[in-house]
């Protein structure tokens, strides 16, 4: 592997498994301890990871998101079950917004079999998936293209959303918790999310539990701006209790093993 490929591998791995030992990385990548430590030091300097005793884990301060294709492979079963649950909130005839993301893509997969819905999204992958579903009315926001995340962001996308009335919006995020609310490391995403939060009658955060406790530089909204949170049941009981003590409606989705 090239140095950049090794660092990408480490970053992807801890996104999925949260922590890993140096000895395990040595074995997985077939390199020396010194090489692994050098890669970890570079990732630390970039603010992506932090060293722990004998290993490395993801930094709570999220500096960068993984590309869409890589995120789609992480926690896929959790995202699929969250998506299936979220669809139960959608009523016939509604205008539904699907934020860009791999969890909202799972919602789109189920909504593709529904009728009499209008779908709005800033996600190109969702748009492509729903393109051949004639029973659905489909809108894309347009705007500045974020190639890494297969979506549109920025003022143009936000402008369209501010001109619409949305019945229910499913909001995605790479980071959220009680202290920092919903956040993102990318400023361009903030305008889009905030625009739809203002125009939607019902605002639903959909996220797997691995993203809880992380935070990006740019704050989208406090959790109190949301009507519902749909997450898998692997949030700790303490966190679930804290969320409910703040009068947040948490839908905890059981993940079926296969």
UniProtKB/TrEMBL annotation:
Q: Work out whether the entry's keyword set contains Transcription regulation.
A: yes
Instruction: Return the PROSITE patterns for the record.
Output: HTH_DEOR_1, HTH_DEOR_2
Transcription regulation listed as a keyword: yes
Residue intervals of the HTH deoR-type domain: 3-58
Task: Please provide the record's keywords in A-Z order.
Answer: DNA-binding, Transcription, Transcription regulation
InterPro entries for this protein: Carb_Metab_HTH_regulators, DeoR-like_C, DeoR_HTH, NagB/RpiA_transferase-like, Tscrpt_reg_HTH_DeoR_CS, WH-like_DNA-bd_sf, WH_DNA-bd_sf
Gene3D superfamilies in alphabetical order: 3.40.50.1360, Winged helix-like DNA-binding domain superfamily/Winged helix DNA-binding domain
- What molecular functions are annotated in GO for this chain? DNA binding; DNA-binding transcription factor activity
Pfam families (alphabetical): DeoRC, HTH_DeoR
Name this polypeptide is given:
Glucitol operon repressor
Q: Which organism is it from?
A: Photorhabdus australis subsp. thailandensis
